[in-house]
Amino acid sequence: MIVIDGRASELDIKNFENLEQLFNKVVEQGFLTDRVVTDVLVNDEPFSEIYPNQAEDIDVHEVSSVEIRTMPSDQMAVNITSELYKVVKLMGDGAKGVADLFRQADDAEALEMYQDLLDVTRDFLNMIGVLHDGFKLEANVEFNQASQSLSSLFSEMTEVLENEDWILLADLLEYEFLPTVELWKKVITNLRGELHSPEQA
Question: E strands along the chain, which residues?
C-alpha cells in the first residue's frame, strides 16, 4: 500500500523494482507539485537515506507499505521563517551577553559564549540559504542586503577574533552585529507577510 498525505494511492508497490522507482513515479504523477516532503515511512518505520540513492538498493519485495507525508511549499517557508525569528532573537541576546563579558574582561566565559554565538549564526546562515534557494527570493532586495551584511560582518569578526582584540570584537557585536540582527527581524517579518499574501497562496 502507498499512502500519500493520508490517502491511499492507486500506485501499486508490486509494479516497481525498488524504492527509487516508486519515489520517481510519485514525483512524475505530480503528487509533490508545490509541496515539500516532511516524512517518509517504509513498513511503518521512518526512512531517510543514509547514503545517496540508497532507495535504489531497497527491493520492493521487502516493502509492504510506504507512507509519504508532505506540506505545501509556502507553509514550509512560513515555518522556516518562524524558526528564523527564534534563531535571530537568540543571536541578539547572545551578542549582548558576549559583548558585556568582554568589557568585564571575563575573556574565558566570553569566548565560550562567542563560540556558541558563531554556531547559532552559522545555522542561521544555512537556514537563510535554504529559504533563498527553495523559495526564489532573488528579487527581495532587503533580504539580499541583510544576507550580505551578516556574511561580511561574520568574516570581519572572525579576523578580529584571530587578532585577539576583545574590545574591538565587543564593539563589533554591539554596534554592528546587533543592528544587523534588528534588520533581520524586520526582513523576516516582511517575508512572513509576503508568504501569507494571496500571491503566494
Answer: 2-4, 7-8, 35-42, 45-46, 66-72
